[in-house]
Amino acid sequence: MAVRQEKLVFAATIVVLGAMSWGLFAPRTTRRRSSRSGERAELVHQRAPDVSLARPNGVTPALERALFAPPRDTHPLPPLELVEPPLETAAVLLPPRSEE
Fold first, then answer.
1. Residue 52 burial by CB count (10 A; 0-12/13-18/19+): exposed, middle or buried?
2. φ and ψ at 5, to 5 degrees?
3. In whole angstroms, what is the distance from residue 49 CA to residue 53 CA?
4. CA-to-CA distance for 77 and 68, rounded, in angstroms?
5. CA triplet 6, 8, 11: central angle to 5 degrees?
6. High-pLDDT (> 70) share of the chain, %
7. pLDDT 10s per residue in the chain (100 long)?
């Protein structure tokens, strides 16, 4: 009895997907053991950097905008100035118009 190729490919796909998803549904009981002993690393206290050194002359910058001014996005924009490019004269004559 001949097995059709589609059934064989479907079965192979199911087997491959089942093998790939086995890790998703398997219980995770294994734990990795560290190769180091239980000794903790010795931590060294580091001093926090001085922020005033990053500012010019140690001055806090002032705000450059008005806090209570209405937003600029609500004002309409000025009309765009469009400069039309110069047009060249036609190299050929246009066909005559029919006057009705």
1. exposed
2. -65, -35
3. 9
4. 21
5. 110
6. 80
7. 566 889 999 999 999 999 888 878 777 666 666 666 677 888 999 999 887 777 777 566 676 777 788 777 777 888 889 888 888 887 888 788 877 6
The mean predicted confidence, pLDDT, of the chain is 80
52 near 58, Cβ under 8 Å?
A: yes
Residues in the chain: 100
- Joined together, the tokens standing for residue 16 give 């491959």
Count of alpha carbons within 13 Å of 57, Cβ hemisphere only?
3
Residues contacting residue 55 through CB under 8 Å, at least 6 positions apart? 61
